[in-house]
């Protein structure tokens, strides 16, 4: 169903100035998410330079148009009502990887690498294998971007992104670029926030990672093994947004969902995976409402069964 856009004709004309790539109007967000479902966004703009992003953020603020940055859409769901505003996707210079050596006076034998937030995790891993840098292997197989990995503090196999972050560059909602050191970031389980209470809306432009030199073959084998484990444990044949719920302290969401007897439970084409109960899979044409209805049903039944209220890890826009 087409959504009524809130952008005026003039706003649409101006928005196109910030990108050389045609802006998507009334965009079906199923095309931009790994769960292949979701409502529509008024506009989706691909921005390729920091200069244009700065201008765009300033303009959106002045026009009071809501906006969100997305990465590779592997942890989001746009509700069936859609997103009234502009979705920003970072490509072009935001996808670069730059080796900086110990430029930042870092003396603990770690090289500093600047990675643009739009860079796919898989591209960074290929780079790290080619150049024999270790410590990133836990990210192998996670289908997100570097910006998404930092924002979500993505993790697996006992490690998380926070462990390798030296600092980040952000653009705040006033269009100012800021370098934030790792100590000024509050990293939590699948969550990050800035300690500075004055910055609450921002785009992550790049991450600076501290990586150790390693053995190329060992790095490759570790990545391959981690991907193999994922293939064994996760329902990767279906579209999904990965683990749907956060694990409650000391327990696993998958265990609680399975214990409530919910494997295979469906709403339309949305289904609790039979392979991994914390995955909601899209078996065909699941709508965002099918997925959120199933989410609520799981929350209710798990609560009644165990007294624990599961909180979604997936960001619902
Ligand atoms: C099959 C599968 C397996 C997965 N396995 C794991 C796993 O093992 N561990 C794990 O942690 N996650 C996992 N995920 C979830 C997901 O891949 C990660 O959270 C990933 O880091 C999200 O990155 P993204 O670029 O797709 O972000 P998106 O889904 O596009 O966005 C996620 C959030 O980050 C914000 N964001 C994205 N980019 C920026 C930016 N530049 N600046 C500010 N905010 C930004 C968005 O606004 C949104 O709130 C899995 C997902 C799938 C589909």
List its traits.
19 strands, alpha+beta, 7 helices, 317 residues, 5-stranded antiparallel sheet, binds flavin-adenine dinucleotide
Folded structure, characterized:
The protein is of the alpha+beta class and 317 residues long. The chain has helices spanning 9-16, 50-63, 121-130, 146-151, 216-233, 253-259, 288-306; strands at 24-28, 40-47, 67-70, 76-77, 83-90, 97-101, 111-116, 155-156, 159-160, 165-172, 177-181, 185-188, 191-194, 202-211, 239-243, 266-267, 270-272, 279-282, 315-316. The chain has a five-stranded antiparallel sheet with strand order 6-7-14-10-11. Helix 3 packs antiparallel against helix 5. The longest helix is centred in the C-terminal third of the chain and has 19 residues, at 288-306. It starts with 8 loop residues before the first helix and ends with a strand. The model has no long low-confidence stretch (mean pLDDT 95). It binds flavin-adenine dinucleotide. Residues 34, 68-76, 90, 117, 142-145, 147-149, 151-152, 154-156, 190, 203-204, 234, 236, 240-242, 315 line the site of flavin-adenine dinucleotide (FAD). Flavin-adenine dinucleotide is lined by residues 34, 68-76, 90, 117, 142-145, 147-149, 151-152, 154-156, 190, 203-204, 234, 236, 240-242, 315.
């Amino acid at each position: 169903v087409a959504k009524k856009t809130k952008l005026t004709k003039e706003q649409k004309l101006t928005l196109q100035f910030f990108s050389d790539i045609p802006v998507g109007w009334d965009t079906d967000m199923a095309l931009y998410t790994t769960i292949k479902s979701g409502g529509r966004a008024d506009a989706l703009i691909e921005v390729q330079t920091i200069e244009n992003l700065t201008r765009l953020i300033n303009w959106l603020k002045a026009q009071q148009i809501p906006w969100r940055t997305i990465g590779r859409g592997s942890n989001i769901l746009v509700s069936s009502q859609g997103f009234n505003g502009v979705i920003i996707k970072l490509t072009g210079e935001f996808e670069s990887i730059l080796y900086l050596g110990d430029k930042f006076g870092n003396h603990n034998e770690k090289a500093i690498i600047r990675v643009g937030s739009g860079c796919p995790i898989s591209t960074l891993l290929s780079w790290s294998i080619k150049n024999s840098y270790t410590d990133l292997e836990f990210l192998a197989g996670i289908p997100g971007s570097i910006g998404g990995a930092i924002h979500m503090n993505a993790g697996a196999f006992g490690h998380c992104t926070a462990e390798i972050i030296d600092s980040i560059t952000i653009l705040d909602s006033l269009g100012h670029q800021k370098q934030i050191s790792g100590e000024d970031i509050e990293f939590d389980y699948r969550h990050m926030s800035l300690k500075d209470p004055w910055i609450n809306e921002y785009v992550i432009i790049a991450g600076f990672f501290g990586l150790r030199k390693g053995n190329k073959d060992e790095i490759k084998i570790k990545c391959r093994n981690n991907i193999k484990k994922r293939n064994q444990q996760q329902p990767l044949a279906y579209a999904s947004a990965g683990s749907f719920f956060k694990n409650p302290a000391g327990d696993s969401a998958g265990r609680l969902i399975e214990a409530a007897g919910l494997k295979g439970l469906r709403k339309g084409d949305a289904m609790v995976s039979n392979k991994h109960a914390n995955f909601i899979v899209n078996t065909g044409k699941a709508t965002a409402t099918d997925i959120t209805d199933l989410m609520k049903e799981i929350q209710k039944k798990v609560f009644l069964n165990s007294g624990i209220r599961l909180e979604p890890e997936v960001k619902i826009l």
